[in-house]
């Protein structure tokens, strides 16, 4: 008689776990403003340490309150902001943007359908690059730059080509360097004015030179003007589009800085100039705007209130204003540090001091920023985080009170006096 033997089921075989790697599209994408030093600062805060964050232009964190009229309009609009809006954004807000530019002398004709609202300017920059670029297309980006521009070009498959701004010439763009870097793959020229991180405000002559280059080489103009009303002393902002009515120009702006509502993520892009030659590109922007459904609807209700009435930023940048005082304190304190120099910013919310390599031998400015954080509990961003090619600069936000800035920069000077790499 055959003996019954139980059959034991063998364990199922699983293939090795497939590794999920980071997309190669991110190879050239950096955003050091919220990079490793920022992560280290978060860990220190979790341990109970106080960190003075001089790394990001976030007005609300330093006591700059939003204008009350904006908050009232957002609250009043909440009951009707539950659903999607039109993909470009609500009409009253876009009309307010049009009215804003109607007050700018020489700004080309603008219609409400030429304005797209976005979840901050950042979203609109990314949409623009996705609509514009094929793999290998080149875009001229300033160095130093606001790093999202470089990242957006890379994410879209393009190649950012950095043109130098000249510190010895008040951080103005080097027009000859731009000309030398144009190829048959160059599609657009980015202009950040007032500039982040340098605080430079470009003259009409410099801007005309940039427009002339774009005209001769048939380049799309992309004008980042988010700080156009954060101006000091006798600085005057000239909108790039006013000098290029014959060229397609996209002008980016929003509420984050001038109106102190960075968390609302409320921005816009205004499209001016001829467009018959760019129908495909503009249809691409429209497609991407529709694909994201719409911008944040409650935040759109802030735009009309912000752009009408008293422009409260003037209270901060004119003589006696807090932002002007803080800029002056930052520059004065930095200039007292041996081996440190600083071009006086004429706009924006930052200083971009230089560390003389003959005095401060720095081979890795990211390590410098991390060491400063660990020793002094001060968080700044290294210059290479803004695609500056040398390890000799730092960006410092000028939003803290004059007292806090004085203390922070004094501690920076003490740190530098003994720092060695």
Protein architecture, described:
The protein is α/β, with parallel strands linked by helices and 421 residues long. The protein has helices at 36-46, 68-77, 91-102, 120-132, 147-155, 175-180, 204-217, 279-291, 297-307, 314-317, 322-335, 365-376, 402-418, and strands at 52-53, 115-119, 138-143, 159-166, 172-173, 186-192, 220-224, 249-254, 266-272, 340-341, 350-351, 354-355, 378-379, 381-382, 394-397. The protein is built from 13 helices and 15 strands. The mean pLDDT is 93. The strands form four sheets. Strands 2-9-8-7-6-3-4-5 form an eight-stranded mixed sheet. Helix 3 packs parallel to helix 9. It is globular. The termini are far apart. Helices cover 35% and strands 15% of the residues.
Quick recap of the structure?
The chain has 421 residues and is α/β, with parallel strands linked by helices. It has 13 helices and 15 strands. The radius of gyration is 24 Å and the shape is globular.
Amount of helix: 25-40%
Number of helices: 13
Query: What is the terminal separation in angstroms?
Result: 85 Å
How do the strands line up in the largest sheet?
Answer: 2-9-8-7-6-3-4-5
Radius of gyration: 24 Å
Structure classification: alpha/beta
Principal-axes geometry comes out as globular
Approximately what portion of the residues adopt beta-strand conformation? Answer: 5-15%
Low-confidence stretches: none
- Encode the helix/strand succession as letters: HEHHEHEHEEHEHEEEHHHHEEEHEEEH
* Largest sheet geometry: 8 strands, mixed
Number of strands: 15
Give the mean pLDDT: 93
